[in-house]
Amino acid sequence: MHSTHLLLEEPIRMASILEPSKPSFFPAMTKIVGTLGPKSRSVEVISSCLKAGMSVARFDFSWGDIDYHQETLENLKLAVKSTKKLCAVMLDTVGPELQVLNKSERAISLEAEAFVTLTPDQEKEASSELLPINFSGLSKAVKTGDTIFIGQYLFTGSETTSVWLEVTELKGDDVVCVIKNTATLAGSLFTLHISQIRIDLPTLSDADKDVICKWGVKNNIDFLSLSYTRHAEDVRQAREFLSKLGDLHQTQIFAKIENIEGLTHFDEILQEADGIILSRGNLGIDLPPEKVFLFQKAAVYKCNMAGKPAVVTRVVDSMTDNLRPTRAEATDVANAVLDGSDAILLGAETLRGLYPVETISIVGKICAEAEKVFNQDLYFKKTVKYVGEPMTHLESIASSAVRAAIKVKASVIIVFTSSGRAARLIAKYRPTMPVLSVVIPRLKTNQLRWSFTGAFEARQSLIVRGLFPMLADPRHPAESTNATNESVLKVALDHGKASGVIKSHDRVVVCQKVGDASVVKIIELED
């Protein structure tokens, strides 16, 4: 958490800041997760999003049915084919999310100082005096004086579209509140968030399980984003559920930290999960505003040291309706990168925003600029110190490969991997150059048919900062003789040259297994 995270050449010429950045094949090392929805589900728009830098597509089941999302996914597959850019799929569960149901979809005006009643009776019409909700235990969970926040799904926190309520009276199952600010609720669905109150609903609901069985299994999802993760046990239960569903035992689980309860059990959750999503929208309601940054920095640091991806949400809310982010948002994206985030997750901005492609492009550009001044040297020392001695065999190879690449100013690190673990460990040390992870498929059988692994592993590295996967030819095993390794290496180098990452006379660091030994070698390319 040092202030020396910035690497600025002293004395910095202010004029140099304005020089245009050189375009590169990889827009940024930091990855971008885009949520696909009404404004971003046609083949054309998805193709543009992929070209602009989106590498993970998020499907949010808080709204839209299975058929709707399936149609979007088919369009994504066509876009991936036409752009030749890999994209991973993330299924976001609804979890114990409290919702206000407005079946008529008429706008609801709420006046400050007036009273409104929240009722579990979902048959009633939503109005300025009465809001039906999807949870019958609200009156038992809250007490007089508690704060309740209601906003359009993925609320941007702008006070004209969201409302603060204070509980004044409990009448049976109904909760009577006084309205704190004048607002208009438009649309059919609003989320309801009660500050620092535990909601007694399962983290993985029956509806979520149904979606995973019907949609997740069929589409071999790469990531499951587990909304409202509150305990490590939530992740264990989700993993056990996935392990019984075909290929989904390979799906990675990202715990979404959205409230004080998840924050309190953060360390145990991090141990169980494959990655963490910091849901700053909900956290911003649960935490005092002055504490939000501190949680972000501490959580990202812990993820970095554990070598697990940290994903930050809610960065450019204003781009839902505007072509440019605010100054605060632009700085926020850069700070997320300097803090060590692996990926930026865009929600409303791409889901229902007017400028999905521009948003991805601008966020990518800000990330790339921040990466240039990321103090890798300090970060490397900190990570090595944290890992301590003796290092594991793999960890020592990974850190040595990164150190060698930086010392010889290599243009790229190439790593051969079949499980993806070696590549993730190299990325953990945040090298300043891209890491090409060549995923070597393995043959497996269920006694009835042969199949290759590798596609999951390749796509799952699309959320890790600095990792760029390519699938190798399955005829080349990862730990084989030198001859076949040379031919796979040639393919990887050709891929690097074609994409402009490697030029003649560049140095490249290669990390591979030869027999039982792991080898790091430095090669200099001829013309």
Automatic annotation (TrEMBL):
Protein name stated in the entry: Pyruvate kinase protein
Major enzyme class: transferase
Keyword Kinase: yes
Keywords: Kinase, Pyruvate, Transferase
Known EC number: 2.7.1.40
Record organism: Dioscorea alata (Purple yam)
Keyword Kinase: yes
